[in-house]
Design goal:
By secondary structure, the chain is of the alpha/beta class. The chain has a single domain (about 1-285), classed as Alpha-Beta Barrel (TIM Barrel), CATH 3.20.20.140. It is about 40% helix and about 15% strand. The protein has eleven helices and eight strands. Strands 1-2-3-4-5-6-7-8 form an eight-stranded parallel β-sheet. The N and C termini lie close together (about 5 Å).
Length: about 290
């Protein structure tokens, strides 16, 4: 099995401004319990107990993204018995984009890039993150990444799906992984209906895959049945061969242990879809050696 979305951090090696901020409540809750090192040994002990044998590290807001990428590469090098790929932050609108992409592609573990389009409505209104979609250089950057064989991890909110899909359609050769099922932040019946409708714009694009990850961030006191309509919708729209599991640890560790989270997804995904959702989709997308469920 493959965990297609998690984070690691060594606070003595890489600085994360968002993580170390004190007394700042985020959309995903109070980060205080995870303001500590979260290293590969702890992650592996939690994940291997649930049958995970490979994983994908997703960039997580380091002050220096190359420092983070090099540190993750050192972790991969030191753990040769664990297939660890990584997705690195790159500003796709940067004037020196080619140089940045050359640098990250010198690291063997790099499979793709991420530049967050949207996190949560309230935070986005303050940061202006969504304006990325209005920058014509963003599409050119997406196209450039695709030409180089790099995938793009897409994090956004449902309100931005249609606009983003129109841009992604201009970069059809860039493989895209939709993080956190598109962050359905409104979990009311009407909210989930709107999310499912907006999701169609992305699921209709053949280059887009969907991650079942991070669903706790907008529902901190969740029960397994809370995830059911989200999982069902993603499987219905994308099909199991375009859906993959991700723990989003240690962020989702704020609300659950790894075993409970993994078992919840295993129970919600039909057994005949397990091989695809928990292994094959991620193995193909991130070019990870075959791991059998």
């Amino acid at each position: 099995m493959i965990d297609a979305h998690h984070h690691l951090w060594d606070l003595s090696a890489v600085y994360y401004p968002w993580l170390m901020a004190r007394g700042v409540e985020r959309f995903f809750g109070d980060p205080a319990p995870i303001q500590r090192d979260y290293l590969i040994n702890e992650f592996r002990s939690e994940a291997t107990a649930e049958g995970i044998g490979a994983s994908v590290h997703i960039q997580v807001g380091a002050e220096n993204s190359m420092a983070e990428a090099r540190w993750v590469q050192s972790v991969a090098d030191a753990n040769s018995d664990w297939a660890l790929k990584q997705v690195v932050f790159v500003d796709l609108t940067a004037s020196d984009l080619d140089a940045q992409l050359d640098s990250i592609q010198s690291l063997p573990s790099v499979a793709g890039v991420r530049q967050i389009v949207g996190r949560a409505p309230g935070e986005d209104a303050l940061t202006g993150t969504n304006t990325l979609l209005d920058n014509p250089a963003f599409v050119a950057g997406l196209q450039n990444a695709g030409r180089r064989g790099l995938s793009f991890d897409l994090q956004l909110i449902p309100e931005l799906m249609e606009k983003t899909a129109n841009l992604l359609a201009l970069a059809p050769d860039t493989a895209v992984a939709l993080c956190h099922a598109g962050s359905p932040h409104d979990r009311s019946g009407d909210g989930l209906t709107r999310w499912a409708g907006e999701l169609r714009a992305l699921s209709n694009l053949p280059q887009v895959r969907c991650k079942l990850s991070g669903l706790s961030m907008f529902n901190h006191n969740w029960e397994p049945e809370d995830f059911c309509p989200i999982v069902e919708t993603c499987l219905d729209q994308f099909g199991p061969n375009r859906v993959m599991f991700g723990s989003n640890f240690p962020v989702d560790k704020l609300y659950s242990n790894y075993a409970t989270l993994a078992q919840t997804y295993r129970n919600l995904v039909p057994r005949e879809m397990h091989q695809a959702v928990f292994n094959d989709t991620a193995a193909d997308f991130y070019s990870i050696f075959p791991v059998h469920v």
